[in-house]
From TrEMBL:
Transmembrane segments: none annotated. Belongs to the glycosyltransferase 20 family. This is Trehalose-6-phosphate synthase. One of its GO terms (molecular function) is alpha,alpha-trehalose-phosphate synthase (UDP-forming) activity. The keyword Transferase applies. One of its GO terms (biological process) is trehalose biosynthetic process. It comes from Sphingobium wenxiniae (strain DSM 21828 / CGMCC 1.7748 / JZ-1). Homotetramer.
Length: 464
């Protein structure tokens, strides 16, 4: 069995299993079984970059991490990754900042990853690079003579060509993807945009899954990420979850709970969600005092200005809506800027009659799937989901809405609250089937099996 080498911006600390995200769990299993290594930034900042690698092992998973300099973090992580690529890839060119220093820092840190990881890699290893922080890394490995099978997975959307061309040196960045053997996206829509760019902007060709640019042919595929559905469903009935469930229900006094859970990010459509909910309160006075929206939004990327702005906007908006509609014994929005451990979160999902997931643009969105997995099969809640989340392709039995329309959001909320049990069950069953079938192990297998098979074709063309 080939060793799997996973490389991502951050490495999830092994061992904290109950709090680990699905991705960490899925990758950990494959890493453990293949005796592989997970390589990434430690999250630590050092005065001078030395290239020192910190090795650790927990639960049978080996990790190799490097520390970065403050300038690296500013230019690569806060800069190019989160001020340039993140907004651009979420269709927000109005928020994207194009600074030469960011691009320079991004390339420098990718070179640092390449320098540190290359000596750890053996010829038979399979390399799997994760996400927009490390797009050019594969090319840098090839420049260092690595011939391994290499895959890349993009966890965020791929933007339309007309937006992508606003990025300085976009052709250089995109061509570097041709160093990989397999490049994966969550949905056909993102894959289509990628192919469009290659054909129209670069004169490449597409034949089925094969995309050719110059003398390189790679496979570009859609491979939707899932969650560990079984584990999540179990978490929702754990003792911790039940306790949380009871606590939340007791605080509601028979009111219906609507829940939102998102990193505090402008792509998640929180402002539009609050406005849609306000519209619901305006349109449906009969529901006053009968519903509560709990929005859990742990702050993220607080060093980036656009995140400080969205936070200030939401503070003001939640205050305004609560000011307008609250009573001394009822507050329509509970806006919470803290995170909860996974089991507690699962209990909150299960207590909620509606899961309100309304990103303006999202590669996939795992919260939608977690909400489904956490429901009580005998009395499931209703998922309201943005059409612009990758997850909408699979979760067709959610109430799909345009998150920019407060009216659609208002109508969907009242429809969900009025939905009879049998209809809720039927919709939930269909969604749960999809969440269970295309779960996180399915995703990992689907991608890595493509990557393993990719070698055959390379060998063939070398032999020809
Ligand atoms: C990127 C893409 C794609 C959130 N608050 C708490 C908490 N979370 C967990 C959720 C969920 C995860 O964070 C968020 O995942 P999403 O998929 O919703 O969004 P991103 O963070 O933007 O992820 C996205 C994903 O990558 C995977 O490819 O789906 O489109 O943007 O798992 O549960 N977890 C806990 N407490 C919290 O308060 N424990």
């Amino acid at each position: 069995m080939s060793r799997l080498i996973v490389i991502s911006n951050r490495v999830s600390r092994p061992g904290k299993s109950s709090n680990q995200g699905g991705l960490a769990v899925a990758l950990s299993q494959a890493l453990r079984e293949s005796r592989g290594i997970w390589v990434g930034w430690s999250g630590e900042v050092t005065d001078h970059f030395t290239g020192h690698i910190g090795f650790a092992e927990a639960d049978g998973v080996k990790t190799a991490t490097i520390d970065l300099e403050e300038q690296d973090v500013d230019e690569y992580y806060n800069g190019y990754a989160n001020k340039t690529l993140w907004p651009l890839f979420h269709f927000r060119i109005d928020l994207a900042e194009y600074e030469r220093d960011f691009e320079g820092g991004y390339n420098r840190v990718n070179q640092r990853f390449a320098d540190c990881a290359s000596p750890l890699i053996e010829p038979e290893d399979i390399i799997w690079v994760q996400d927009y922080h490390l797009i050019p890394l594969g090319q840098m490995f090839r420049d260092r003579g690595l011939k391994n099978r290499m895959g890349f997975f993009l966890h965020i959307p791929w933007p339309p060509t007309r937006l992508l061309v606003s990025l300085p040196h976009h052709t250089k960045l995109v061509s570097s993807l041709f160093a990989y053997d397999v490049v994966g996206f969550h949905t056909e829509e993102w894959l289509e945009s990628f192919r469009h760019y290659i054909e129209k902007e670069m004169g490449g060709t597409v034949k089925g899954d094969y995309v050719t640019l110059g003398d390189r042919t790679i496979q570009a595929i859609a491979c939707p990420i899932g969650i560990n559905a079984q584990a999540f469903a179990q978490a929702a009935t754990s003792e911790t979850a039940q306790k949380m469930h009871r606590q939340v229900r007791a605080s509601l006094q028979d009111r219906a709970l609507i829940v939102g859970v998102d990193r505090l990010d402008y792509s998640k459509g929180l402002e539009e969600r609050f406005n849609g909910y306000a519209r619901f309160l305006k349109d449906h006075p009969e529901y006053h005092r009968k519903v509560v929206l709990a929005q859990i939004a742990p702050p993220s990327r607080g060093e980036v200005e656009s995140y400080q702005q969205i936070r200030a906007t939401l503070d003001a908006l939640a205050g305004r809506i609560n000011g307008q509609y609250s009573d001394v014994d009822w507050t329509p929005i509970r806006y919470v800027n803290q995170g909860y451990p996974r089991d507690q979160l699962a209990g909150i999902y299960r207590a909620a009659r509606i899961g309100l997931v309304t990103p303006l643009r999202d590669g996939m969105n795992l919260v939608a799937k977690e909400y489904v997995a956490a429901q009580d099969p005998d009395d499931p809640g209703v998922l309201i989901l943005s059409r612009f989340a990758g997850a909408a392709i699979q979760l067709k039995d959610a109430l799909l809405i345009n998150p920019y329309s407060p009216e659609e959001m208002s109508d969907a909320i009242s429809r969900a609250l009025d939905m009879p049990l049998e209809k809720r069950k039927a919709r939930w069953r269909a969604m749960m089937d999809s969440v269970e079938t295309q779960d996180i192990s399915w995703w990992r297998e689907a991608f890595t099996s493509r990557l393993m098979a990719a070698q055959d074709k390379t060998q063939l063309s070398e032999a020809e």
